[in-house]
Specification:
Four copies of one chain form a homotetramer.
Chain A lengths: L16 E2 L1 E8 L4 H10 L7 E7 L4 E7 L2 H5 L10 E7 L14 E5 L2 E11 L2 H10 L9 H16 L2 H9 L4 E9 L2 E6 L8 E4 L3 E5 L3 H5 L4 E4 L4 E5 L4 E5 L8 E2 H7 L5 E2 L2 E2 H15 L7 E4 L5 H11 L7 E3 L18 H5 E3 L1 H4 L3 E6 L6 H12 L4 E6 L27 H8 L3 E4 L2 H8 L6 E2 L1 H4 L10
Parallel strand pairs in A: 15-24, 18-21, 21-22, 22-23
Antiparallel strand pairs in A: 1-7, 2-5, 2-11, 3-4, 3-5, 6-7, 7-8, 8-9, 9-13, 10-11, 10-12, 13-14, 16-17, 19-20
Helix pairs in contact in A: 3-4, 4-5, 8-9, 8-14
Chain lengths: ~475, ~475, ~475, ~475
Amino acid sequence: MDIRTPGSEATTGRSLGESCGIVSLAESVPVGYRLIQSLRIIQHRGQESAGISINTGNHLRNYKGMGLVNEVFSGVKLERDNGLGIGHIRYSTAGSSTIENAQPLYSNIGKYEIAIGHNGEIVNALQLKKVLESKGYSFTTNSDTEVILKLLSIELSKTSDPVLSMKNTFKKLVGAYSLNIIINHRVFVARDPNGIRPLAVGTTEFGYCAASESVVFDQLNGKMLRDVRPGEIVELKKNEIDSFMYNDKAKTAHCMFEYVYFARPDSLLDSRSVFETRMELGRILARESPVEGADCVVAVPDSARTHAQGYAEESGIPLTEALIKNRYVDRTFIMPEQAGRESELDIKLNPIKQLIDGKRVVLIDDSIIRGNTTRKIVKMLRKHGAKEVHLRIACPPVRFPCYLGIDMKTKDQFIASNRTVEEINSKLGADSLRYISLQGLIEATHLGKDNLCLGCLTGRYPVSIPRK
Amino acid sequence: MDIRTPGSEATTGRSLGESCGIVSLAESVPVGYRLIQSLRIIQHRGQESAGISINTGNHLRNYKGMGLVNEVFSGVKLERDNGLGIGHIRYSTAGSSTIENAQPLYSNIGKYEIAIGHNGEIVNALQLKKVLESKGYSFTTNSDTEVILKLLSIELSKTSDPVLSMKNTFKKLVGAYSLNIIINHRVFVARDPNGIRPLAVGTTEFGYCAASESVVFDQLNGKMLRDVRPGEIVELKKNEIDSFMYNDKAKTAHCMFEYVYFARPDSLLDSRSVFETRMELGRILARESPVEGADCVVAVPDSARTHAQGYAEESGIPLTEALIKNRYVDRTFIMPEQAGRESELDIKLNPIKQLIDGKRVVLIDDSIIRGNTTRKIVKMLRKHGAKEVHLRIACPPVRFPCYLGIDMKTKDQFIASNRTVEEINSKLGADSLRYISLQGLIEATHLGKDNLCLGCLTGRYPVSIPRK
Amino acid sequence: MDIRTPGSEATTGRSLGESCGIVSLAESVPVGYRLIQSLRIIQHRGQESAGISINTGNHLRNYKGMGLVNEVFSGVKLERDNGLGIGHIRYSTAGSSTIENAQPLYSNIGKYEIAIGHNGEIVNALQLKKVLESKGYSFTTNSDTEVILKLLSIELSKTSDPVLSMKNTFKKLVGAYSLNIIINHRVFVARDPNGIRPLAVGTTEFGYCAASESVVFDQLNGKMLRDVRPGEIVELKKNEIDSFMYNDKAKTAHCMFEYVYFARPDSLLDSRSVFETRMELGRILARESPVEGADCVVAVPDSARTHAQGYAEESGIPLTEALIKNRYVDRTFIMPEQAGRESELDIKLNPIKQLIDGKRVVLIDDSIIRGNTTRKIVKMLRKHGAKEVHLRIACPPVRFPCYLGIDMKTKDQFIASNRTVEEINSKLGADSLRYISLQGLIEATHLGKDNLCLGCLTGRYPVSIPRK
Amino acid sequence: MDIRTPGSEATTGRSLGESCGIVSLAESVPVGYRLIQSLRIIQHRGQESAGISINTGNHLRNYKGMGLVNEVFSGVKLERDNGLGIGHIRYSTAGSSTIENAQPLYSNIGKYEIAIGHNGEIVNALQLKKVLESKGYSFTTNSDTEVILKLLSIELSKTSDPVLSMKNTFKKLVGAYSLNIIINHRVFVARDPNGIRPLAVGTTEFGYCAASESVVFDQLNGKMLRDVRPGEIVELKKNEIDSFMYNDKAKTAHCMFEYVYFARPDSLLDSRSVFETRMELGRILARESPVEGADCVVAVPDSARTHAQGYAEESGIPLTEALIKNRYVDRTFIMPEQAGRESELDIKLNPIKQLIDGKRVVLIDDSIIRGNTTRKIVKMLRKHGAKEVHLRIACPPVRFPCYLGIDMKTKDQFIASNRTVEEINSKLGADSLRYISLQGLIEATHLGKDNLCLGCLTGRYPVSIPRK
């Protein structure tokens, strides 16, 4: 799918939330470099900025910068820490890509130092901000995370009790949040009452860890213990974890898009394998929308590879790696203005002609957002001789904005927003276009309709979205 | 395969040749940025340095630097050129990674300016260098390409005839060379009499092109015309190409390793599809070395994916994407010395446990050089529950150095050099290990035994290798 | 003098204030680049970081970074502004040299955006901070400027009146502050009731300006109008300036060290020429502490040049430029650890032997803080043959910390703190050492004893210094 | 003087020579970092590039880069060397500022490795180059130094005798050259038969040194031994120096401009103090061209400070530091194109008004080349109230190109080239303009007319200049 299309103006005006990844550690060894390595494991969740906050014994020490983890931290010498720390990576969005918004965000108040990393989006952030401003609290960023940080600081100064402060703070928040928080010598993670964004806890070789995706535990020679519960705060200690529930009444609403596209296939999210879900999406899609007499199934690499495998398996149509992705062109390349505009897609993807030429191709993509890339791939396949191109999409049409942590903000950007499937295909130019059904998507996740956030598909969100 | 293992000390002492990629253009539009984009297409052939030489009307202008094309050229403003130019990317090798060795190499003599890019390796370079030195010719690098450049300059100053000068020069060279050469306003490419390294000519939207791999023509909206013949010089003009044969007696000896590993699967090399060859290698391997009762075929991503597809197709054992590659960890990351050494492989690859656990796995790799990575992957699969791991390798054991352009120089680095297959497997730790037969490899290429360079497998090279 | 000696650990723990420079503009043309150029004019007041905040029509836009103005802003494209902006440069101090402390500091509250630049130091900052923290206000830096910013934001949210908010805020502050503040479309400067740090307003070619030193007006083709009065707020508009007095009862206490060392000689501070003051210091020093039969007067370049000129003029002893300063060694040079430690001073200064050899030298320095550099210069002169070296210092012994904006914080760092002049000279190794008298210093400034801050000389400060 | 005025197009087309500085060391300790520190001492002789070549035991290792020494070498880890090495800094000229031209230049031939650094200019370089090219020798730069390197390499391959090879090579050269050369384990310096560019040998704490200026020996705790003789080769060994004369017939012709402007005042050049020469130039100028009733003497800082001191001393008119130079604006600052063009001079220099206002000023500059800066300074003084400005220049009018190592190449760039003094002053706008006489200049140097190169003043050069 094409969510990261260069030049995409996904957000207009000031953004208050993005997709991100978090990792927290409490270990008997210094964690600074281990946090950095762990962030590299989930780098796919955010490429705009990276940061860590570690406890050096006396103080929290923040390191952060713009870019990939290797760009920010390559060669950086960290102060030695005492085994407690949190890390964060932030997704690249148009507009407000500045170091001020890089996380963890930091503040100090009295004897407390606080750093916080946030994956998700607070839908009532502007309302909360206005209330705070009316009381004289000023802000230094336009991030919704600063609102959480400010509320938490105020509570801390009142109660001197970190857990109580978090509970009081979280009760005011509406929206999606998987948080990692370090307050002096204590490391916490928390998850919103709907469990919209993923978050899990696990062991490591030297202690405990919490992370957006379970793959992190593997790399640290540990094991996943469990998902953080919706409405739960977990404190990570070096020898144990403590649990504090602050809300257990909300209905779970896990983001379906994590399964469809965002998470790594080798992750388990809320006890469900991402890989298995994608295979199942492919199988269901094959049953719902077969292509009689097709010669081959082709995936849009790399994200739709598993879905295509499921489709091929179920349909019996052979899967071929007919689109070759250039591994090097993900990297930023700035062409001076005088240069002719070559298509970046032409450099990124190239078909193997003999696998396409004269063939009836089933092209599988995980999802379609804007449709620009999909249109170009269809055209590319035809140019290389494809007789027919049948598009099969493993996610129902995305028609509504996400307010809960995925950077899809305005309806204008969705090719599906005011179009029928027929109309969409007239833009994309395939011989046929079919999306998986909503029911099929739900079935594949094994989570049940009532436990999923399907807001971007249905316009019905698990929390009430304020008019801004 | 593990040729690029970090820390590999593949070459000892001074290296006189590496694998590389070249692109030349003669077009009715400026070619500077088009050369750069084309180099990105074949970036897999070399990541150490990148450079171009373009004709600005009066002079040749060289631009080069260390690193990937995007690192060297991102944001660089080029002088406007007149549609003539050559480009080069160089493979990273241990030891002599300096800007002086980045190509194209440049020289001027009288009214001539010359720039040259070289893919391959001249085996009699040291002998030629000594002769030149005895006549008072000095050198500024330890590159074999400078020897070619010096010989060509001397010939040019004698004959004032570019084509004759090249012919005279090439007759002295023994080894592998696909060259691109710009002499003032004339752009040439040439290929050694054995055709060891690939080189093809094609059209573009605006003129003619020559490139190491045919994928470049696709990106420039052109078509492959043909391979450059062994022993041929081709001059690229804006409206036509001219051919000059300087040696048509040699036996062709195309590098088998280009098909097995080095080239892109979507390239055609000497009229043979790389993709098809890899599929065929997999199929033959399946026939030669089946694994009865295996549960799944798993490829070492990304390079062995096609071979694995062939193996799966032939054997009927399902192919699964059980090893997930982290797309971001190819990038250089420098850990300060005080940091604990985490395994880069653990960050790079992660298995999907449920696809491995309790399974009898056929693990396909394209080739094994040192074996370090292979051993770790076998161990990783076992750790995630694999019941059995059967290694199947789509290239016979590499036991001899390559002197003709692939950076495999000393026997010590090869796990297979003095070991039986049994002994190799005792190092790798698989349940079984089988290599494809030499005959199977030859069959898969469709080129015939007599048209392949199999030096690294047999120790018999198409040209005589001087003792150094 | 040696205040900037590398390796100086002037401040221990967390610093809450440093010397700096500020410039504000309200003009009928965009001011972004003009602010940058103006900051270069007063670069001597701070080399650690540089920043500007400009009004782009809808919002304030901040640009800041670590290093010299040319390092931070070279090649930077600014958003177009509407003629309103402020700029700041910050002095390099040990310990807390981080981008978070770079100014202007920014915050937003309700409809207000505020940016603030500060030259000086708030002595009751910690007390004010504690009060704010007890009310739930958290901080993101350890800068005393953030305390001012926070107080001002709170007042603004209460009163919605920028001038009243500033008045209310300033009444709480004890210490030294010359401030520039931009609140949405309004640009203000203010000076503490004692006028400790300099600040002046002037015209420019296109409007009005305020700056730490009057040299800025020259460069902008304008004229100095007057000093900002102690206890005054001045609003800069494009066509006029408005004055608001918030405190006119305090006794003026201008920092004597600005005249002795810190300011540019071509500046006028509080109507008194820095150049004239330094000449006068030299003349008085010559009268108070003559050196009978000396051969030459030599200045420590560049800062003592004017003082030496005065001494030479008064004494009749010829002034010679016998110490040659290497113009390039101010720049940072990082020697790898394995390199031998060469003396940076040996590279920085070199005597002209024939001017020194066999001579009785009067060596003039503006002041002595730690004494390390002075000792080395005395030794250097002797090594080149000086028969006698008589040290004459144009500032009385510095024996007490500055809490009001100069980075001299702990008594340990002063060579004079617990020593008689005789004892000091036993460390410095001169044939004789004389300081100007306190009376002489006061006389030279023409300001009167009661209008000077002499805290670092007498330990008596113009404001009450809280025990920390 | 204004030789370095930004935007100066001093050289048109391809330059074959520039002013530079060299340092060579043979010591019992590693010299890499000591060479770097020594280059910083003579940084004023060249700011474009810096490089060293050191012997690591088996090989020469080159390090070079564009920019100041601190920019090129800050933080660079050098390989350990055996105490032998050479260093070079190159002056910034328009046009050919590329890394290829950075020195030392390197070549290898047979068993010899050679690196060479050059201060000066070979006037028959093009002729020599053509001869070499006709014999098949090609070039990789447009530097005249490469011609020397090539000739030397050829001789070495013939004779295997470094000293003989240098002698044979130097006999072919016409022009100015102070060279440092390392050939494997032997370090040499040489000076052209006219001794046009300076070069001296001295001791250090650990061995022997040769350098463009004697200040280097001071810094290395050594002493100047003597100037290298015109036509002499000196070999530096760790315990001794050897001398080889290859030409002792030529007439010495030391560059007068080194004394007037280029060298450091604390250097001794050919036994004559630069400082003393400049004082004397000022005194003679005062005698030749007094200004009756002037109020003050003002130097253009920093280069004319000594000349002004001499003028003041002789005339009895007081010297005042009325022009304040901003120490930070020498550094490169790139203003984006959209920014208004502020005068860099206005930022660089500022007068002290009270020293100028109503005064009759004698303004001393060391020399005038283009005159742009001088004109602006005159205007600046008038703007600040100067009643009269009388320009006195310590060098006769520069009217002819320098072909021997100073970057003044075309007559068009000289304000004096086709103008009388009266006409020049009508451009500069002073009340009067006087240059020192040629006789006065000669007298001040104490070297005698026949021992000076006065080519840029008289058009008569010590060597025959070929028509290009």
